[in-house]
## 1
Amino acid sequence: MRLDTTTNKRYAFWAAASASLFTLASAQSSATASIITPSRSLATPTVTASRSSSTAQAASSSSAVLLGPAVETTLTIYPSQLTAQTTYAPTTTSNTGASSVVAASTSIPSPTAALNTTVDEGILPRQQYLCAQGQNATYCPGELLQLVQLSGIYADSKTFVDKPTRYSLNETYFAFEQLTQKQNITVGDVVTFVEGYFQGEGLELVPAQIENFTTSPAFLDDVDDVVYQGFASVVHGYWTLLIRETNQSVICDGVKCDSSVIPLNNSVVVPGGRYREVYYWDSFWIMEGLLKSELYNYANDLLNNFMDLIDGYGFVPNGGRKYYLNRSQPPVFTLMVNAYILATGNTTVLERALPLLDAELEWWRVNRTISVTSPYTNKTHSVAHYAVNNTAPRPEGYVEDYKTVSGAQPALNTTERESLYAELASGAESGWDYSGRWSKQISYNKSDAYANLRKLNVRAIVPVDLNALLYADHVILANLYEVYMNSSMGGSSSGNSTNTTMMMNSTMSSSHNMTSKIAAHRMIASEMNAAILDLCWDPVKSWFYDFNTTAHARSPVYHAGGTFPLWHNITPPEIAHNETAALNVFQGLRFIAGTYAGAPNIATLLDTGLNWDFPNSWPPHAYTAIKAFEAIGRLYPNGTVLDQVVTTDFSLVPVGQFGLNQTQLPVQNASLVSRNTKTFRADLTAIQMGKPWWQGHVFEKFSLVDPDAAGGGGEYTVVIGFGWSNGVILHTAGEYGQYLVPPSCPLIQVVEANATTMGDSTTMMQGFRIPPAK
Ligand SMILES: *[C@@H]1O[C@H](CO)[C@@H](O)[C@H](O)[C@H]1NC(C)=O
Ligand SMILES: *[C@@H]1O[C@H](CO)[C@@H](O)[C@H](O)[C@H]1NC(C)=O
Ligand SMILES: *[C@@H]1O[C@H](CO)[C@@H](O)[C@H](O)[C@H]1NC(C)=O
Ligand SMILES: *[C@@H]1O[C@H](CO)[C@@H](O)[C@H](O)[C@H]1NC(C)=O
Ligand SMILES: *[C@@H]1O[C@H](CO)[C@@H](O)[C@H](O)[C@H]1NC(C)=O
Ligand SMILES: *[C@@H]1O[C@H](CO)[C@@H](O)[C@H](O)[C@H]1NC(C)=O
Ligand SMILES: *[C@@H]1O[C@H](CO)[C@@H](O)[C@H](O)[C@H]1NC(C)=O
Ligand SMILES: *[C@@H]1O[C@H](CO)[C@@H](O)[C@H](O)[C@H]1NC(C)=O
Ligand SMILES: *[C@@H]1O[C@H](CO)[C@@H](O)[C@H](O)[C@H]1NC(C)=O
Ligand SMILES: *[C@@H]1O[C@H](CO)[C@@H](O)[C@H](O)[C@H]1NC(C)=O
Ligand SMILES: *[C@@H]1O[C@H](CO)[C@@H](O)[C@H](O)[C@H]1NC(C)=O
Ligand SMILES: *[C@@H]1O[C@H](CO)[C@@H](O)[C@H](O)[C@H]1NC(C)=O
């Protein structure tokens, strides 16, 4: 590899290479094998696909079987043919490929219990009003929602809450009252009710007709390697599947029918799969990708949607559904506006954005801030935490939450139940749902998925990544005010935009007010910087940790969120002028990259079976690892110690940084490349689209024990698509395209064996991977 001579990239390039390696490998996992293994010629693969009609999610409803050595024929097609595949982008008005696969994901009930089984109506939570503003709605926790969800007629709790009613709420509840007159309500009764009174989900947002889509955005020219170039070009083409707009003609007006969707005025980019609406923190990485893909109008649309949401609700909700209105997600909107302006120079957005960015940060200050006195300095700080006011199961995770709470032993009383529901919703607000990071008492018993969930302590944790993001938001917002003043007051204008009259009429109203805003945001930022260094930075372990207000001490859990302060230039004094000390900070990351081939970061090293723990590695954290290295590149543009090697030995990781000794670390089992069984969902969407079988999928997360498989764990089937993964791939390709060297991967063979059926009737298949013949 060539070593970058420009400062930022000096240390970051190998993290980028590592990130790109795992995303590339993983993207191939379900359909293609080692497309980049050179010079071996094997038989043409045979592919058959069958459709299972009774699955819960259309996006994962096909099963496919790859027969025979399913590999090397793809070698010859790179990169020209791959690039050619992007022509399926809807440059015409016909968009059948995309919509048939992704949009109309209407499920039919697939109950796991016999239709004559009586539904256990369970313990009802207290009446909730939030998601319907005082009026009951079918997607808000209550008698109706609980009965439908506990009947288990859909494999995914999210399916029902995304279904609009067929008639008015009055008629729907009237029918429900009739139903509840029955003494024993059966699963079959619920199926009949839901099919009679609800419409299909996922029809309210439809693939947008994308205008001005370029198949060859400029960043592709900067990707030297042809395989990576072809790969990035394919991923670039995926936007056409994920950009959606509200289909105003089917949107419920709340009178004739009612729906959980929040109608948005502009197009959005959905993550994919069950995530069929806009999501808050996903959108930052999606934005980074859109900008590389030169889809500037869609980036602008995304910003305007979020501005509409802040206008309407005072904050950015978790996602584009009314049942998300009691919680937010990691606050990345300021970063999105900044990224957009950096890429386009269009400062006009600031005119609307500035007051709304201010409002969002104020929401975090008012609703999510607590006061903590440091045990280290006795100073008192205002810091943020995730804390959702909620006393019922999350509508979209109803069954899971209900079981978590009602299955606890000894049984919980009402106060305790409501508190655990608040914890579950707060975990979802963090984006990290769920992780041992939030657990009062970490359980490694993977056969009891509930053990950690019942010990959630999210609200008591001061998350280092959340606070670093808010710090960055205040710094950047102050800068954006300056940019706006300069561009609108005829100052050193770099932007295009407004005039003084316009600015005077705006809500900021005067430069004097703006100057004081700038000072106020810088003041808050400076206090947050001090708080993070005091509460979260551990000078001995050389890493940033959460602060746990229950223990009144830093949490010992090493996690990927520790990269956020580095990403945002929060620099501990110990490393500011000491390159060796700075190197210590990164020893953990270097060790991880060297030990768990395929990723430069890991959610945590806790092997709990939860979604945000080992072995899952998430694309946003590949991004933040790269950005952390870029920060150190800025600090030591002429460093010498840091240059040395890419990976490191455990003995060089500062004592205690991981909170685990070497023998306690989970391992990446080398034999996995030849292990004999691997079960995965073989969903070859590509086939349904008439695309070649070898076009794989991009997953939402990846597994470090098995770098070319999707990550596992969590409450739902691993999702393909996938917005933030695509965003990180495109951003990394654009920024580091000159330095990326493709990895050599072992040959992977997938054969049919023991096709099995999951509880939700989705056909699974067994496959195995074999090492290349010697
Ligand atoms: C449900 O139906 C099955 C088969 O029709 C029958 O064997 C079973 O006894 C029924 N159960 C109840 C609770 O009625
Ligand atoms: C909402 O549901 C509760 C309990 O099911 C009921 O008492 C209340 O009257 C309902 N409110 C409306 C507006 O339907
Ligand atoms: C509510 O629905 C019932 C049954 O369809 C009907 O009799 C009643 O008039 C409706 N009430 C209103 C206010 O629409
Ligand atoms: C309702 O179910 C219970 C127990 O499952 C049974 O004892 C009872 O007879 C049922 N009642 C009716 C009306 O079916
Ligand atoms: C596409 O390009 C045309 C001409 O430059 C422009 O008017 C239009 O706004 C663009 N549309 C989008 C969605 O970018
Ligand atoms: C945020 O705080 C304000 C003021 O206390 C309150 O009105 C609002 O409901 C809160 N919002 C949420 C989502 O908690
Ligand atoms: C710049 O942003 C404004 C405000 O969002 C928007 O109306 C305009 O179309 C953007 N300009 C370009 C060239 O995209
Ligand atoms: C904090 O205050 C307590 C009580 O006033 C004192 O005992 C302790 O030494 C102080 N700690 C530090 C770090 O200043
Ligand atoms: C939490 O929600 C309840 C209503 O569900 C409300 O009375 C209370 O004020 C809310 N608390 C906060 C802090 O927003
Ligand atoms: C619920 O249990 C907690 C202990 O976990 C106790 O402090 C509280 O008083 C109990 N509440 C009720 C209503 O019993
Ligand atoms: C300002 O806008 C004009 C026309 O809309 C465009 O030609 C020019 O390049 C823009 N300038 C900047 C700095 O974006
Ligand atoms: C400045 O903005 C105001 C308000 O939008 C507008 O009426 C006026 O024409 C603009 N002036 C110039 C020179 O663009």
## 2
Amino acid sequence: MSDHRSDMVLGEEAGDVRRFWGRLGLPGLIDVHTHFMPERVLHKVWDYFDANGPLIGGLEWPITYREEEAERTALLREFGVRAFTAMLYPHKPGMAEWLNGWAADFARRTPDCLHTATLYPEPGVETYVRGAVEAGARVFKAHVQVGAYDPADERLQQAWGVLAEARIPVVMHCGSGPAPGKYTGPEPIARVLARHPKLRLIVAHMGMPEYEEFLDLAERYDQVRLDTTMAFTDFTEGFMPFPRQALPRLAALGDRILLGSDFPNIPYPYLHQLHALERLGFGQEWLRAVCHDNATCLFGL
Ligand SMILES: [Zn+2]
């Protein structure tokens, strides 16, 4: 079985990606939602996608960039992605701290990766979140669907407080796509924001399929942002289309939308995410903000 795309195909795609941001007059892209994690964990994730498990809605989901870690980082650099993240997340207690150790090391040996950390509702969470912040973490990832926890869980309150105080963004998979979880959807996260209105929440995947409810939260809280991960692509539009009536709100929130891709775990080429944004028709200024400038502001790059 050959999942690897040829070097020639990847090289051509890199040229197309570079032309995309070059046309916009940008120095490159910033992608706030890319997955790097210990190889053993990543391979388990890939196995799950291969098996069309229930958390991905039982969908056919071929991984486009099933490469070794070094090749994946090299490819992002060839695409001209100037900064990216290592989105990793635990599905059970006792795992987050270990993942954070790995991510700190990954950030050390990968200077263009924004040092990423994660958390889970468990004893000691505040301590290791504080530790990660002190160690230089610049972004957190929380996965409400895979972790199957309530983001408003009492055990997380101090940790959210630490992150709000430190102004460190947290990318959270809190929407109910591609498959709902017990605590996904806008309601639990609205309770978190009610207590931590300054939390720099980045709603992953535009909150799909509850796009409009998460736009409500972004309009209500000025520190709420959304990442574009997989949104607007042919793949996602096929089963969780972005509602047309919400397009003007999306255009207006251009300073709060951040490019995210889900690289490498995507069932289409990276370039397609960029084209999916371009064809929204909001123009170059919107694209420049979303693909680069909003993230440079947020992360002080
Ligand atoms: Zn993701």
